[in-house]
Amino acid sequence: MRLLTTVAALRCYLTKCGSKNKPKFPEGLVLDEITSWYQTAVGLVPTMGSLHQGHLSLIKRARQENSTVIVSIFINPLQFAPNEDYDRYPRTLEQDRQLCELAGVDAIFAPNPEEMGIPPKSIQESQVTQVIPPSAMITGLCGRSRLGHFQGVATIVTKLLNLVQPDRAYFGQKDGQQLAIIKRLVADLNLPVDIVACPIVREPSGLALSSRNQYLTAQEKEQATVLYRGLQQAEAAFKAGVRDSSQLIAVVEQEVARVNTVFVEYIELVEPTTLMSLEKIAEEGMIAIAARLGSTRLIDNTILRDRQPIIAIDGPAGAGKSTVARRVAAELSLVYLDTGAMYRAVTWLVLQQNIAIDDECAIAELANQCKIELTPSNDLQSPVRVWVNDIDVTQAIRTIEVTSQVSAIAAQSAVRQALVKQQQSWGKKGGLVAEGRDIGTHVFPDAEVKIFLTASVSERARRRQQDFKKQGQPEVSLEQLERDITERDWKDSTRTVSPLQKAADAIEVPTDGLSVAEIAAQIINSYQQQLTQR
Q1: Range list of β-strands (E), 98-173
Q2: Of these residues, 46, 55, 59, 107, which one is catalytic?
Q3: Which of 169, 227, 400, 449 would be 311's cystine partner, CB 3.0–4.6 Å?
Q4: If you average pLDDT over residues 143-172, what whole number do you get?
């Protein structure tokens, strides 16, 4: 692991790691087919140091999804007001370095303010060029008492993203306002980075992990748990049917009032992405709280969603995802969102228009301009009919030609961005079953039920051969199918964009020797258990 303290060293490191991270290619893979498969993705975890398990959860996620993981440690003067704790903020670089090394971090970028071109002053006093998020997002919640804070955050995050140019950057949900602002910043400035939101990590008591927790005495740490208890009470009320803002806030206030040493700064209900105040939750809301114990300021939040659960089914090619997902959706009367068919539809259109598979610019144009529709069908084998530009391609997208090229198309960033945006829009109300290779990790990371189906290569080849026979396709030998499946597994798991992975909270279901009915029963049982816990 490298410790880098200058911009010049960081740029040198990124240049070198970009050229050395090309993986070994499977035997027999033609070179001109793998230009999109170099696993050179860079993940950035921005921090202010004093690392704890919350930070380590971000690093772990980044380690799973990228070939290079960089942790930045920079205590940003611009986000501290003159009367705040910049000078006494914990500085534990050596301890942080050891934690990062154990967590598999490739490099730490730990510049001083001068190296970042930032004078050790607050944002109000600084002459540096500033990035100013929308006023409505930075004047509420923490923005009321921390004037200039989010301008300082946005300015330094933008600098870090420009310096590292990561594929993904990881932020915790605990700083819900910050997360929403950074997502908006990236969208508004068209920055080519995926902002990955990671769940809040808590101590066994429920207290959200924070570097500032070390300011608390043992007694204060115990008292601080009332913040989470208040949020839990709001969750319970929400599950009981309460949707009104004033009622939900009152529930939190009543619980927090039990500890008279906690000074509440605010308790508010806002829309999680825009941060606009809500009077009533229609789809989802975030209850956020800020409070002080002595001189220590703490924040916490919880997301409340009014939707039916989502079942996300992931797994490698040929594991039976589509068949099982159709069965589960039918038995639970849920919508079957055939995401794989969407990628197949784009692939079919690419082939129809004789566009080269590696012509990513032309394919990006196509994916963002074509009209894909999924309509219900009474046929259990094809419960969704697929239309592209008003052409029914339900059967056409299942040919060997499309199957052999869809993985390459699906790996292209522009294609995935266009289709994932549609999928997430359809998922807002929940009540659906979706299957693919990154549904639980990328498309619906907050899905209530996550399943990862697996099966041996030989079993998947046997199933694929049977499918081809049923579809009247030309016969392909098991040996060839096993080679094709092995190659596709490698491509799917090493691609830069949303690689095939099991979500950390997914239930793995090995399917060798199990019937579709048996597999579906396991998933339905998990779904019903989730409903009883709501």
Answers
A1: 107-109, 168-172
A2: 55
A3: 449
A4: 95
